[in-house]
Amino acid sequence: MSSTMLKEPKMTQDRSIDPAWMPTIEPAPEPASAEPSVDAAASVPALLVEHVTKRFNVSRKREPVIAIADVSLRVERGGTIGILGANGSGKSTLIRLVSGLLTLDEGRVEVFGLDIERDEMAVKRLINRVSVDAAFFKKLSPMENLLFAARLYGIDSKFARLETVRITERLGIAEKRLSRPVEQMSRGMQQKIAIARALLTSPTLLLLDEPTTGLDPRSKLDVQAFIEEIRGSHDASIVLTTHDLDEAERLCDEIVVLNDGRIVAQGSPEELKRLVAERHGEEPTMHNVFMTYTGRSLDEDVEEDESDDE
Ligand SMILES: Nc1ncnc2c1ncn2[C@@H]1O[C@H](COP(=O)(O)OP(=O)(O)O)[C@@H](O)[C@H]1O
Ligand SMILES: [Mg+2]
Description:
9 helices, 310 residues, 6-stranded mixed β-sheet, Rossmann fold, alpha/beta, single chain, binds adenosine-5'-diphosphate, binds magnesium ion
């Protein structure tokens, strides 16, 4: 990380700004010198979640929804954890709790050893959340978008420009694509740019909430390969939610299966498959892991709640 002075990135002023983009990144923090000394303790996990519970009060008449119930997990630096679960199982809630978008009802979360409530600003600099609809200034180029993000993060713009070229090149995005308006790019490519943007800060905890849901098959494979590349280079520690079992198996060192906000299974893909084979006599596949621990097939997503909502 550069410790040089903040400079203004070269941004064109007159182009339209998509306000939806703003909430995803915090306003300019102090320059990088205030960065915590994360290198000092290599054994500190990238993410520590301890006994976290989150309830939502939906209406006065009804009991609160327990979206996350006593969840604990740990992601080592450079590790990739997959959160697997049907719709409504609590995946996004967990991601939003970790990224500080929701407050915890119970429990504790640490990011690179920093408490997310006590050290909120420092933590925000280490976390990057990429959700299904990554928000950009659509009329600006990826380079302009990334320089803008760098500025919000207090990263020197010259350094950010070099980093952008380095990161995107290594991830297989041609430099010439960096200067075209984002709106002219495919959704798969936009998703890659969003992830590349998240890699500008370092070290980083990358929170990917269903990064491939809704992409066409080709873009999906591209984005998966892209995540694999990041994972291989250990540039980031990754939390990935998905309801794609193959994706989880391919991309994650460890998998947590959520069902109604609770962890019902946890381990490496190999461990989980071995368990269902040994204990339940099932074929060792991720599908059977999921069926065994959640009692449902991924095809039957949890929609039944909606019928009695009104
Ligand atoms: N803001 C909210 N207010 C009320 N209930 C919510 C809210 N966000 C999520 N929930 C409920 O919490 C549960 C988990 O939702 P979510 O985390 O979005 O699941 P997933 O991402 O796995 O589909 C669901 O029952 C959902 O209806
Ligand atoms: Mg979700």
